[in-house]
# Entry
Amino acid sequence: MERFNRAPATTARHLLARCLRNRRWAGRMASHRPYPDLASLLAASDEAAYDLSPDDLLEAVREECRMLRTDELARTFLAADDPLAAAAMPATPGGGGLWSEQQLRVVRSMPRAARTAVRAAWVAYEQRFGHGFVLSLDGVDPEDALNHLLTTVRSRLALAPEDERVVAAEELRQLARERLTRLIRSDRPDDFDPTCAEFPPFAPPLGLPV
# Structure
């Protein structure tokens, strides 16, 4: 916590924006330092997240999905069906360590029909709500992650847009808590490097590119 509290303001805002990708949230969180402990930081994160406007939330979701379109999971998913498309994708800065090797192995071993079903659900979600799908993976076994995505995205497709905004906002809030916890507890020097574009390890949103 001391390392985070003592970081320059620009560095702190960058670190925070990797946890919830909205400039207003990151600026508010950075300006309220120092935090006495992790519990206080998480409580402040929740309060700031609850105060985000619909436009703020849309900014955060869109930026999450922009990152997903360049990560290793997207490459793995595309490579199974279209190697040329996967090869053409831009590389994630820093190598793209958003996903554990176990999660990537699960995707590589999925039958083509399963991958098709997941991508179809993702496309249907974007068409219905106008933005990508985000989902916290906290407590989900990596072996069950893609099944969990498919079940959840299908259930959320039935929601009215105003209700889905509430659900998406809650998923972003939970993701921010997970990432902040990993950031503060991390002993990896790269996690406090302001030039690093990766998420704190391993708390990405679960979504796939169209």
User: Anything to note?
Assistant: The CA atoms of residues 11 and 193 lie 8 Å apart. DSSP finds eleven helices and no strands in the chain. Confidence is low (pLDDT under 50) at residues 83-99, 199-210. The longest helix spans residues 161-185.
